[in-house]
Specification:
single chain; 151 residues; mainly alpha; globular
């Protein structure tokens, strides 16, 4: 693969797999409960959603390494070194994807692109309740797909 981006820390398949599993395990019950009750009026834990977003990113990047028979993210193309979960699902040819924009609960009612969801949660923002529950269910489905495809 070409067009390397050298300003990111490189991670190996075992490191990404371990990161995926640790983060997934930290949020497992929270996400499965949210996925099972999508119309609930209960908020999903913001830290759990942040960890879940990073779990999926680790899992999808591990999947990319596996598909390309690569050992490290240093060998991935620049387009693979992204937080955009839709781009990563496209690259692993996975049909599960997140909607492109999400509605924040901020006073400015920001429309948040998928690639910036981690920023929203990292800096204390929230999605609307409906979008938050939808996001939790979508992430849960992605995690299940990663578990099936990344041993």
């Amino acid at each position: 693969m070409s067009d390397k981006k050298n300003d990111k820390l490189p991670f190996s398949k075992p490191e990404l797999r371990s990161g995926f599993r640790r983060l997934r395990d930290a949020v497992g019950a929270t996400l499965s409960d949210a996925a099972a009750t999508p119309s609930s009026s209960t908020r999903v834990s913001a830290p759990a959603l942040l960890h879940a977003l990073y779990a999926v990113e680790c899992g999808l990047k591990c999947w990319l390494l596996q598909r390309g028979r690569l050992e490290s993210t240093a060998a991935l193309d620049k387009e693979c070194l992204t937080h955009d979960l839709n781009k990563l699902t496209e690259l692993v040819e996975q049909r599960l994807e997140l909607k492109p924009y999400w509605h924040s609960e901020s006073p400015t009612k920001l429309r948040v692109p998928v690639a910036q969801l981690h920023e929203l949660y990292r800096y204390g923002g929230r999605l609307t309740l409906k979008d938050e529950r939808t996001l939790a269910a979508s992430i849960h489905r992605l995690i299940l797909s990663i578990e099936e495809n990344v041993p």
